[in-house]
Amino acid sequence: MVEVSVLGGVGYAGAIAAQLLYRHPFFKLAHVTARAEAGQRLDDVHPRTRVPLELEIFDVSKHAVDAAVVAYPHGAAAPVVAELRAAGTRVVDLSADFRLRDRAIYDDWYGEHKAPELFGQGVYGLPELTRAQVAGADLVANPGCYPTAALLGLAPLAKAGVIGDVVIDAKSGVSGAGRAPTHATHFISANENVSPYKINGHRHTPEIEQELGVLGATLPITFMPHLLPLDQGELVTAYVTPSAELSEDELVNLYDDSYAREPFVELRTGPVGVIDVRDTNFCRISWVQDPRTGRIIVFSAIDNLWKGAASQAVQNLNLMFDRPETEGLL
Ligand SMILES: NC(=O)C1=CN([C@@H]2O[C@H](COP(=O)(O)OP(=O)(O)OC[C@H]3O[C@@H](n4cnc5c(N)ncnc54)[C@H](OP(=O)(O)O)[C@@H]3O)[C@@H](O)[C@H]2O)C=CC1
Ligand SMILES: CC(=O)N[C@@H](CCC(=O)OP(=O)(O)O)C(=O)O
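# NDP complex -> structure
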């Protein structure tokens, strides 16, 4: 029995990670931590999780079990991940603290790194692209929600070296912003509204550029997020100007070669919607080619809290512990 602690279990992503691990046939959810709500049960704070465990204040001597899912905000995660790693615990970190490989870029977007000795040691945990590295990793950096959807949608084109230029239009439900409400995420601001945000630059831009670069597409991207009046769900529409002409058959082959055998990628024709992947680890992808401009328009839908965060963390844990990748997720 492999024991797992979930840190930050009252956050939106942490609560779902705990919910999935509590019912997982292989892992044992040993501890769920929180600060202000310690002493309460998780299912009192988040009834839908149906996890009757008492929330505990983090204590590395108790909570450094076989593995941990750290669901803290970036900045807060790094020092705790360092403590867990020093105790030998294998970690999936949901924050951005170990996703980037260029320290200057991290510091620019997030501020000074709080565990510099571990910087760059996280394996980027997008299993469809980095499965082999995740399997042997002790520290997995779970991707951001927008990068998950954008990279899965674009990877076949990036690997084929045919992205000349790309504009990524992205939309997310409000849970993407976490549990603490702000003026922008308050019901009164978000309801009946669709609005772009972080219009002068979003920190997922360098993350997407980094991972597209790993796939062979090194280029500056345009990325623009929007807030939707939904609780969960995320849709990316990527407008790709190809650097080479591609026939319909070639495009079909590129996407089939990448994803035909992927358990959590659903290739579709026609429009995709976030409701179709709600509360699942699936990413639904479709594309069209505009015959007038030649642009390839790729659609990619995920649940930001699931494939964009918590269920992807469990997919990564499955790989790290040599379990069937879909265990506890279908
Ligand atoms: N929401 C999403 O769609 C996605 C989130 N992520 C990432 O996952 C992580 C968790 O996100 P999410 O669940 O949305 O966030 P939330 O804000 O909902 O939850 C974060 C939790 O972390 C705890 N926390 C906050 N600050 C600190 C701190 N300084 N020290 C210790 N604990 C702290 C809080 O617990 P307490 O209340 O007990 O203090 C809080 O409940 C973040 O890094 C986020 O960027 C990644 C992809 C998608
Ligand atoms: C709607 C909304 O606000 N979404 C969040 C993305 C959440 C996410 O993926 O977070 P990290 O990369 O920080 O882990 C945002 O745009 O900041």
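# post-check
The chain has a mean pLDDT of 98.
The pocket of NDP (ligand 1) is lined by residues 8, 10-14, 34-37, 71-74, 76, 94-95, 144-145, 175-176, 178-180, 304-305, 308-309 (CB under 6 Å).
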